[in-house]
Please model this.
Amino acid sequence: MILLAAIWVPVVYLLGAQWSVYEQYGYGWAMPCLCLYLAGQKISSCPPVAAPIWKNCALVFLVAAGLIYWLMRVLQEANPLWRPPSLGMALAAVAMTLLAIYLTQGKPRTKHFLFPVLFFLVAVPWPSPVEGLIVQTLTRFNSGMVVEMVNVAGVPALLHGNVIEISSGMVGIDEACSGIRSFQATVMIALFFG
Model:
């Protein structure tokens, strides 16, 4: 348990800066508790402990994940809002956690706890190009729906990218109207209750 706390406390601490700055990731503060809750639910139905089959290979991967974790931690300390090190550090923490479970409890228990460990990745901010693509797609979709509804209501409107032209002028659709906040929170809630 102390080993897992030593892995995850820095991850939560460093991601906390991004959860505080990026409003759409504010739900990240609840993720450690939700992951612990899911793991606690899994404990009651644990399969028996089994010896690991590929112990030496798992140790090599554990050391490699530890090195990646350390490198990402150094990069994250230098720039706490940079997203790639956050993702790398979280992925390394997930890998180290699963490998630690595998080495101490065996393959059946590793598979058993796979979802509660992977679920934390929902709180890691997406890389900017991926998030930007989703925001632009959602904004265009919302703008198109608004133009269609306004036209059905009898008000002529044209869509120019993220700007709607009506008879009285232009109306810009901001990225905040894309629905990205609710989309990311919905993904988290759907996975949690699913």
Notes: Residues 2-125 form one domain. The radius of gyration is 22 Å. Strands lie at 157-160, 163-166, 169-172. The CA atoms of residues 46 and 112 lie 7 Å apart.
